[in-house]
Amino acid sequence: MPTHVGIGKSNNRSAFKAGEAAATVALEKMGQAMPHFVFLFTTTGYNQEELLQGVRSIIKACPLSGCSAEGIITSDGSDEGSHAVSVTAIWSDTISFQPILVEGVSRNIESVAMRLFQKCTEGMADARLLMLLPDWLTTNCTHLLSALDAVGFPSTVSVVGGAAGDMLQFNRTYQYHQGGVYSDSLSAVLIGGKCTAEIEVSHGCTPVGIAHKITQSNGGNVQQMDNRPIWDIFKQYLGKTTDNFDAYDLRYLYLGEILPEKNRPEKNSYIIRVPLKLDKEKGSMFFPGDLVQGGHVQLMRQDAQIVEAAALSCAQKIVSRRPGQDPAIVFQFDCAGRGRLLMGEQTTEALVEPLQRAFPGKPPWVGFHSYGEIAPVQNKNLFHNATVVLCSLYEQISP
Q: The pTM is what?
C-alpha cells in the first residue's frame, strides 16, 4: 500500500524519554526510513518543550503538527492519564500533508481566518481536508468557522478537528508546529493528493421538555431563556435546591441548538452546547460556541448507552459507504466530557474498541479527547460539543 502509518505511544514520566520512545515505536511500525509527516498528541503532565525535543531526536526535521489534549486515543484505546503521548508517523506517495500555524488567535478572528486561508492557498489545488487543532481557551471556534466561510474558503474542502485540551484544568493548552510549542495559536494540517475523506459526527443526547428561546445572551454567555434566568431553568431539570454547579452536572444536561432547516439532517438536528461556568450572582451560564439571542434551544440529556450506540453507528455508516475498502488512517476526535467523566474506566470498551471493530481491516487509529469538535453537517462546517467526530481517510490508487 502506498501509504504506511505507524503509531507509537508512551507513558514514560520523563518528557524527553516519552517523546523519544513513542517516536521510535511509530517509525518501527511505519516500516520506512523516515516519515513524510508526523502527528503529535499528548496530555499536559509533561514539560512540552522537552517532549517535543524527544520526538525530534528521532524524526529529525520531518514536518510535524499536533496539540495537547485531555486524553489521547490510539489503536490501543483511550488514555486520559497525566502522562500519555502518541506519535503518528506517515509515509505516503499518494496523500500530502501541509502543516500550518497561525499565532495570536485571540486578537482578531477575521484576521486569523484570512491568514489561515492565505497559508492554505499553496496546497489548495488538490486539497481534500483541513484539520484544525485550535487553542479553545482563546479561540471562538464558531466565529472562526464563520469567518473562514466569509473569506471564501472552498466548500469542496471539508473542515474537521478538535480543540486542544489540558486535562480539564482550563488553564493553558498547547499547539505543536514543526519544532515549536505554542499557545494562543491554531495548528492546522491541509490534507490533499489522491485521497478522499469520509466524515461522521454524533452526540448521543436526547431532548428533554419543551423548546426554549434565548431571550438574553452575549456570545457564549447566556443570561435568560424565556425571560427567566437560565440557571433557574437548569436547576429545575437537574432537581437542584442549591447553586452548586460541578463536573457531575456536566455529564448529563446540555443545551441543543436547533439547526436551521437547510442544515438539518434527518436525525441529529441539534448542535450540543455544554455549560462550563455558572455566575451565581447573575444566574447566567457560559457555553463554548455562540448561542444567539432570539435562537431556539432544547435541553438535552446525555445517556451513556445512547452515546455508545450513536458512536458505533458513525463507524458503521462510513464502512457501508466504502465496502471492501480499508482506510489509510482513521482520526477520532471525542469530547472530553464523553471519556472518563461519563464512562469511568470503560471509555476504551465503550467508545473506541467497538468503532475499531466495525472496520474489518483494523486500520491505524489515532485522535484525542478534545474541548470541542469540528465537523460538517449538511455541507456546513460547525463547532460541536459533547460529540464524536470520525474522519476516515481513503487513498485513491490508480490501477
A: 0.94
Q: What is the rounded distance in angstroms from the CA atom of residue 377 to the CA atom of residue 383?
A: 10
User: Which residues, in sequence order, are CB contacts of 344 under 8 Å at separation 6+?
Assistant: none
Q: How far apart, in whole angstroms, are the C-alpha atoms of residue 391 and residue 386?
A: 16
- pLDDT classification of 77: cutoffs 50, 70, 90: very high
- Of 197, 189, 168, the closest CA to residue 67 belongs to 189
Q: How many CB atoms lie within 10 A of CB 250?
A: 19
Residue corresponding to grid cell 466504502: 322
- Round to whole Å and give the CA distance between 110 and 65: 23
Residue 210's Cβ-count burial label (10 Å; 0-12, 13-18, 19+) is: exposed
Nearest to 317 by CA among 258, 267, 368: 267
Q: Which three cell numbers stand for residue 389?
A: 467526530
User: Does pLDDT of 250 surpass 80?
Assistant: no
**What span, in angstroms and rounded, lies between the C-alpha atoms of 188 and 65?**
7
Q: For residue 11, how many other CB atoms are within 10 A of its CB?
A: 15
